[in-house]
Design goal:
By secondary structure, the protein is an alpha/beta fold. It contains seven helices and seven strands.
């Protein structure tokens, strides 16, 4: 394929992804199906106007869709007694969000929540919701993520998940020292992106000590779900990523 055709294809994919993202952002209560005990709910968000020195390609809130959902749903079905329902895209201000205990935000280093969205997300979390943030890397992306997260909880600290927190052992004992990589690992063997050299499991707790926000920083669990059937992606990483997710899901439904 010639260089100009490759470039044209890249432009098309970028525009196509942006169009889909915009459609998802507008699709709120029109097609909600609550047909299981647990559903994979993605957060539909607007992207920040950023200029990273380290640019990581991605499709915003649609990154890893739909394969990540498909494989994680299979894992939940096989490894737990929880019945899974249809996947959803919901805006943070959508009242239907209150019907789902578990919410997933991909590429948190790109999101940009306004004050109204932050207030609704805050209410969701304080009323018992659980937010998993995943697939963002390095100091610049952390800064973008933290800016919006501070709109949600300006008074609550973001802390490293302490040893012994039940979220790390509720169903499976997980190894938090492993950096679960994006699929560039297949080509390069490199587990990190940008200057995100070390994995961090961080969180925000409520006044009763319940974990409301689970932040997977400098790693990419969804890529491990997405590539579960790829023989080139290391199976131990996929296994760890699904074990983490099972813990998060069961925690969200029992706390």
């Amino acid at each position: 394929m010639s260089w100009w055709l490759r470039r044209l294809s890249l432009v098309f994919l970028t525009l196509f992804a942006g169009t889909l993202s915009a459609q998802d952002s507008l699709q709120t209560a029109t097609s909600i199906v609550n047909d299981g005990e647990w559903s994979f709910v993605r957060l539909a968000y607007d992207q920040a106007n950023y200029r990273y020195a380290c640019r990581v390609a991605g499709f915003g809130n649609r990154t890893d869709y739909p394969d990540a959902e498909f494989h994680l749903r299979q894992g939940i079905d096989r490894l737990t007694l929880v019945t899974t329902g249809e996947e959803q895209f919901l805006r943070p201000g959508d009242p239907n969000l209150m019907n789902f205990p578990w919410l997933y935000a991909v590429e948190g280093g790109q999101w940009d929540l306004d004050e109204s969205e932050a207030a609704h997300l805050r209410e969701y979390l304080l009323r018992g919701g659980f937010l998993m943030v995943d697939d963002f890397h390095g100091t610049e992306q952390w800064s973008v993520f933290e800016t919006s997260m501070r709109r949600v909880f300006p008074e609550r600290p973001i802390v490293e998940i302490p040893e012994g927190d039940p979220v790390m052992s509720l169903v499976f004992e997980v190894d938090r020292s492993i950096q679960i990589p994006a699929n560039q690992f297949i080509r390069t063997g490199q587990t990190y992106q940008c200057d995100g050299y070390d994995p961090h499991y961080r969180g925000i707790y409520d006044d009763e000590g319940r974990l409301m926000v689970m932040i997977n920083f400098n790693m990419d669990l969804a890529d491990a779900w997405e590539h579960a059937n790829d023989p080139l992606y290391p199976e131990p990483m996929t296994g760890q990523a699904i074990r983490f997710a099972v813990n998060y899901v069961i925690y969200s439904m029992t706390h």
